[in-house]
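Ticket closed. Logging final result for IPT/TIG domain-containing protein.
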Amino acid sequence: MCGIESKPFRLSISPSLKRVDGGRFETVGGKFYIIGEFFSTNLNASVFCNDIEYKSFVENSTTISFDIIIPGPNDLLCNYSFDNGKNSSNFKIEYPLPFVEKTSTITTNGGILTIYGKNFYNVSSIIVEVDNQLLCKEIKFIDLTSLSCKLPPIEESEQSSVFNQKLLLNRTTQFSKKLLLNVTFDSKTWSGYIFQFSKDEIQNSNSEKSSNETKGGSKEKKKKGGVLSSKKKKDMKKNSINNNNNNNNNNNNNNNNNNNNNNNNNNNNNNNNNNNNNNDKVESTPETIV
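Final structure:
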């Protein structure tokens, strides 16, 4: 009724929570938000991750934020407490997957491979693998968007499978078939057909190999048909000396045979002379008359 004074009363406005938002966490961390209403600067709210407390910042009457600087890539389970523990629950921080945009090209002889992308993690366990068989070694984290490693050459036993099935030539400067690349940072992995071996450099390498084989064949032919080795020269000289000695011995034997023939002829002549003398004696002997 008008003019009648009402009884006093107290209006209590309490903060209320509507939702929580993990926001967008990057590789090095991110922000966590509590969304509600009737927030004040003296509102007690906190977040715990790995037993570490992260203090709140009241941005306005509807938003409280937390800076959680924890590098990935392993996801975390954290806990938030709001309004002196009246609201408390767990939430999960999920880190983004790595993404590879491009790589450098190298020959099948191996070399330094550089990988470019985003959401790379600076962790001790990084694995880079090409075609599920070539493991990159000496991996170096450059920054959040690039890393490098040393790719070994393709072994002879692996060339048939890689070359015959996957490295199909085209008119570009690279092989048309892209190979599978796996990049793993602890629990986060990116996989995609993005890596290519350089075609021109492989052709040059094969040309050099053919050239070397041709040179090697020419040297072998030259060695066989043209220039003689020192060992062969010595053997030929030794054989020549032996042949000369044999020829000299044969000549001496021939001379001895000739001398023997001459002696035989002389003996025959002497025998003939003796026979003639005997005949003369017979003719001159007088007959005996009885």
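The domain at 99-203 is CATH 2.60.40.10 (Immunoglobulin-like). No further action required.
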